[in-house]
Amino acid sequence: MSLAFGRDHLAIPGPSVIPDRVLRAMHRSAPNIYAGPLVDLTKGLLGDLKSIAGCEGHAVLYIGNGHAGWEASLCNTLSPGDRILALVTGRFSLGWVQMARQLGIEVETLEFGVTEPADPARVQAALEADTDKRFKALITVQTDTSTSTSNDIPALRKALDDADHPALLMVDSIASFACEPMHMQAWGVDVLLTASQKGLMTPPGLAIAFISDKVWSLHDAAKLNTPYWDWKPRANPSVFPEHFGGTPPTHHLFGLREAVDMLLEESMEHVWARHRTLATCVWKTVDAWNAGGDLRCHVPKAEHRSTAVTAVDTADGDSSRLRDWCETHMGVILGVGLKPTPTATVIDSGFRIGHMGHLNPSMLFGTLATIDAGLKALDIPHGSGALDAATTWIAEGFRS
Questions:
Q1: How many Å separate Cα 367 from the centre of its chain?
Q2: Sign (positive or negative) of CA dihedral 334, 201, 274, 301
Q3: DSSP H/E element including 98
């Protein structure tokens, strides 16, 4: 018997749950795209996005997903034959590498497996070995959504500085933006990429690039640049539609404006703390399941895990049965496990829990309780006391 007759809960690592406030903000007629409220809204929105990112440079928008941000970052700074260093910690790191190679960029990769973050010492050694300073950029994700590893961005900036290397530091924060701390200027990030559909709680369709003034010398020499991808008119438009290379994504702007208002009302420090608290609930729950079965957090050390998404390992064959049961019978949609390849290859020995964006304990506990019920219904071995571990963690936080 299916009980999935209420509102489905999307527990995948993006698109995340869209708040009712955001949906209501988007439910309106089309506006004037040349003057008036939309122009003022966009100006304020770009400023607030920069504040969330800790960016003192420019924010530019694309009608696209995170892959659009990847391509924009490469085309605005590089030429065919240029060389970059890429840090690989999962499937999305590899996707950015694949795109760079398709554009004719030479990529040297440092691979760190799929359960640990990038090692700054190895990164520094690779940069020091580049005695001719051929690397034009170091590219990395903050969180790799497929593995749920989280890289230490300040430590990677220090590796660049200690190696006295001029390469740009480009960071994909698509899964982590507005979920995990980001201080672009203070951390020395030169290009920061994100998208609307995860921590920003807005439907997929907007890519955002934050750029420092350090990029412009490379930008002016970049032979991969094209009129549509070009940052300059988007950063300094002569007319409003140049922000977007044409017609603005009107209703996405209305939605994103409301989402950013919600984040600022809560305060980013509280948003980040909330994500860490909820992530810890997930980890304690999975640890309890692991005590009597094969379920475990994919990333062994908590300090190396994302607070936006948790990848969970299972025995072969268990993840698809569990995901199907949770969706069909309970209305909870879990994220698929992904193989660390450039293309999205689904595996049957793991799943992912998205705990990003518009989320509170009752929503998260519903997901965890559903998984717990599925483990019982499907006779998948697991330890007991998982939900008690999560609720106790929350309760102790209020007592302290």
A1: 20
A2: positive
A3: helix 91-102
